[in-house]
Design brief:
Length: 53
């Protein structure tokens, strides 16, 4: 997460901005991890996977 935060082009200047970035990270992490698991188990088709990534 720290590396992801450092890599963001717009660094937060306030706690609210940091929270927005953290919320974005959590959403992306959870969606990616979920889709990866689904892809490994064969529940997501290749076109769905490619559309996401």
């Amino acid at each position: 997460m720290k590396n992801w935060l450092r890599a963001q082009p717009d660094q937060p200047a306030t706690i609210a901005e940091l929270q927005t970035l953290l919320d974005q990270f959590v959403t992306e992490y959870n969606q990616h991890r979920g889709l990866l698991h689904e892809r490994v188990t064969g529940r997501v088709t290749q076109p769905e996977w490619l559309a996401w990534s």
